[in-house]
Design a protein that fits this description.
Blueprint lengths: L1 H15 L5 E3 L2 H13 L3 E11 L6 E11 L3 E8 L4 E5 L2 E6 L4 E6 L8 H6 L5 H4 E9 L2 E8 L7 E8 L4 E8 L5 E11 L17 E4 L1 H8 L2
Parallel strand pairs: 7-13
Antiparallel strand pairs: 1-8, 2-3, 2-12, 3-4, 4-5, 5-6, 6-7, 8-9, 9-10, 10-11, 11-12
Length: about 220
């Protein structure tokens, strides 16, 4: 009985001080890591979860599937939920296919400077420290989390937070509040960085009889990326 009491007491004390596992990180060091992660990016393949929570916190929409990313603006989100949804860009043309509606939103990417800021950072198209400043950072195990503020007013990226996984060498989580006060979260799971991904992965041919709309706004609104 005495040994059992000591065991429970030990577990209690461990849980009483969880912060001992968390290291507060100097912002200069954190931003150097963020810049290195973005600038060294070549490719990433893994799984993702994308959640969107309403401003009142009552409704959360969750989507998930496989993700392929490659320098040069190449993106592919292959959804398992909702089944059949595809978001893909070869760096020049982006498509969003909604199987349920049998429609495709197409947009031409004329200038990389017009690419959404979040996508530019994840795809290594810009140096993060030129766009953001560090408000707070910490490290727990192999995960470094950084709270970021924008150097220019950006209402669509408020309370931005990124987490970098030292093991994968890539982002494990990105979250922010958008202009509609919705919380957007991307989790990247079981991924591998800087592996060979053929460009053919990022090509897309719309299904026959699918309705095609030219709409950049609808693409970005659906992706939150």
């Amino acid at each position: 009985m005495k040994k059992l009491f000591i065991l429970f007491l030990g577990l209690f004390l461990v849980n009483l001080h969880p912060s001992e596992k968390i290291k507060i990180l100097d912002c200069k060091e954190a931003m150097a890591l963020l810049d290195k992660t973005a600038n060294n990016f070549k490719s990433f393949q893994g799984k993702f979860t994308h959640s969107q929570t309403s401003s009142d916190g009552k409704t959360t929409n969750i989507e998930k599937g496989d993700v392929f990313l490659k320098r040069g603006g190449k993106i592919k989100f292959l959804y398992a939920e909702p089944e059949g949804k595809i978001a893909v860009s070869n760096g020049k043309t982006a498509y969003l296919y909604l199987k349920e509606d049998n429609c495709v939103y197409k947009t031409n990417i004329i200038l990389k400077s017009k690419m959404p800021l979040l996508a530019k950072i994840v795809l290594g198209q810009t140096t993060p420290s030129k766009e953001f400043f560090c408000a707070f950072s910490q490290k727990e195990g192999e995960i470094t989390t950084i709270e970021l503020g924008t150097k220019e007013k950006e209402i669509s990226l408020r309370r931005l937070e990124v987490a970098i996984d030292q093991k994968s060498g890539f982002f494990s989580k990105i979250s922010y509040i958008d202009e509609y006060d919705q919380k957007i979260v991307f989790d990247f799971i079981d991924g591998r960085s800087n592996i060979e991904i053929p460009d053919t992965i990022f090509e897309f041919t719309p299904p026959k009889n699918a309705k095609i709309y030219e709409s950049k706004d609808d693409f970005q609104q659906e992706m939150n990326f």
